[in-house]
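for the record, two folds in this file. i put them one after another cuz i was lazy. first one right below, seq on top, structure tokens after. the second one comes after a little note so u can tell where it starts
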Amino acid sequence: MFALRVESLRRIRVPLVLAACLYLLALGLVLWAGDQWADMQAQGEARRAAQITADTRTSLLVSELQKYRLLPVVLAEQPEVAEALATNDSGARQHLDRKLETIATQLGHSIVYVLDRNGRTIAASNWRLPTSFVGQNYSFRPYFDRAMMSGSDEFFGLGTVSRQPGLFLSRRVGTGAGGGVIVVKFVFDTVERGWGPPPRIVYVTGADGVVLLTNLPSWRFATIRPLPADQAAEMRHVRQYGDVLPRLLPLRVKPLDMVDVGRVTYATASVEAPVAGWRLTALEPFAPIRAAHLATARLVMMATALGLLVPFGFWLRARNRAELATTVREMLEAEVAARTAELEATQTRFREAREALAHANRLGSIGQITAAVAHEINQPVAAIRTLSDNGAALLDLGDAATTRANLVTISGLTKRIGTITAELRAYARRGTGAPQPVALDDAIDGTLLLVGHMLRHAGLALDRGPPTGLFVFADPVRLEQIFVNLVHNAIEALAGVSAPRMVLQIDTTDDLVSIILADNGGGICETVRETLFAPFTTSKPAGLGLGLGIARDIAREFGGELQVAEPAAEWNTRFLLTLRRA
């Protein structure tokens, strides 16, 4: 009896043990599969997050750097730079010091300086500081040699005086004894702060693998790979990173775009940066993302384990997976949307800043011209109203002939209004920019249509002479912009003159048409005449000093020129516009 009971217990225990073993084996397989799934999902999400970070941070770097790349080109054209290089005049160089200081203050986080042909600094924006570059010799710097040879260069390094790293943008100015190099040092403090603090790590490496920019200060000037001996010697010679050679970062590359930094694992994404040889790399911490996916996997595994015992577990697992997947997707979509909006806003601000200067002159004059055009339209509108009111009375009287004459007059007045408004729309429209044959008389007529009221209000008349029948190469809208600018300046110059006069004189050769706009105002003083076309030069209290510079640039785009002519007879101010004859 006892033996039968033992055998019965054995028969019952064996299936239970076998079932328990099978259950534990199945549970172990579920746990292993869940961990593998969590790792794969976490790695994919981490790589996507790293790629988004790399793209957005690169866009921020591009937008900031683009503003500074144009500065050496603009400064190289300034007469003060050429004068300071060509002479040893201390006054000219001090004047250039102050101008560079003003430019650097407006830009922020930058230093601007000028080197002579021997590499010695003759002017700098930091001339007031103890760390002034004035008098320092930078002929050993690669950006000086390469700019003198090829015209321009971009070089990243540590400042030998300021001990502050930055990108040196250099451009050659002039040739021979009066030649030199203009340098803009762009410091990336604002860019690095915009990248945000760790644990997400962002860094930029040069072609040599040295970390140039990063939001982790301890990584700056470290290297991601060993440096060859000759390359290390060259870095020490030019003092690119100071007196200390870059140390090797403790990076251990793993498969699937993963990397270990010490005991911390990151997902990586790398894109080209806006400087030759540079690459921006984003490291996304893997542990938080893996923990989130592992938590999801554990919930799924618990549901699966329960599902092996209770059918309800299958439903619970599906619900939890759906909720977690939705949450993760919404968080990722929100992050992508936020970063996309940030990038679009940055690009929009950059485009607006780039286009603002080109439209400043035209937009500044639209308001005054609109007021004048409104007055021009009021008179025919009033006449139309009077003739319309009389029409009913004339019809009652049966005077069809007078009524018909009034209608003809009304038609002419509406055509006049259409001509005025069409000219205003054309002036407000952006020009095509491509020079084409333009009737000079039409351009003058359009200008007088826009500024006619301002002339009459000032008690002036433009003596233009008879029609010329000439054609010139220009853009009709932008040619009118030149005339409007010159006439408007003349009106302001003639304010308060007892017998004001303004004349338009036209002369021709086989290839050119010369147009002189002269007035008998007070003239232009010698100090202003020398820099009259330079940006921000004006004698008007409320002027920006942009109008004449923009007008001359437009004339040059047409293949012509705008300059100040010498006074003649009673004409104290004379502007000469030369255009190619069509």
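(here's the note) second protein begins now
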Amino acid sequence: MSAALSRRLLIFAALISAAAIFECFLLYERPGLGIGHFYYLSIALAAMAGGVAGVLINQDVPSNELLTTGTFTRGVTYVTIGALIGWFASHNRALVAELRVLADRDVLTGLPNTRAFERAITRRLSAGRMFALLVADMDVLKDFNRDEGFTAGNDALRRLADRLATSLGPDDDIARIGNSEFAILATVQSPDGAAQLAARLERILADDRTKATLGWAAFPKEGDNALALYRAASERLYARKVMRSYLRPVPEPVEQQAV
């Protein structure tokens, strides 16, 4: 086979393979699938065609040794190695993406953690639209840990997290930001909407095993940055906890029988 014919065949194969890979990429590519790695084959064919062109220019290289059995063996080896490297690279990207998700999750509840919450509130502050920050604190966690053990307390936290997550809208954000604290970011139409949402969530959590107190703050009325909003919501939360402790009925002392 002449060098000129070999070059034309390699260029033709490179163009056909590139067109086929491009069409498959448009139709079937999904995140993590890696169809684009097949472009290495087209690149390899084009490089081989360039090598043939070099043979045509350099008269010292005999063209009858251009394509041999060893040439095809090396070509298959290079393509296989390229495919393996592409697969490992794609697999590594998938693992990195999974680790990134896990790094933003709370181990106990599966909710986003403080790191993810900071990014969420930063996005909302950058958007500049009104929203509410709600901070919820579980009222009975210490009782669970004292009376039933830490396993019961962890189960109670999971129930509370599930109830909060299923009670919010699809565009709302929730995260666990402390031992018994959860933060919620919700879109509201007015500052009063934050108080109404807090009252609704407290009614949903009225069960003794998931009871929680909520505080709230509305952007931009009660703060124009994350720290100011969190401080306002936390102050309201703990003020309401103190008020409830005063309103809670004091149990009657048990009279001791005379011996």
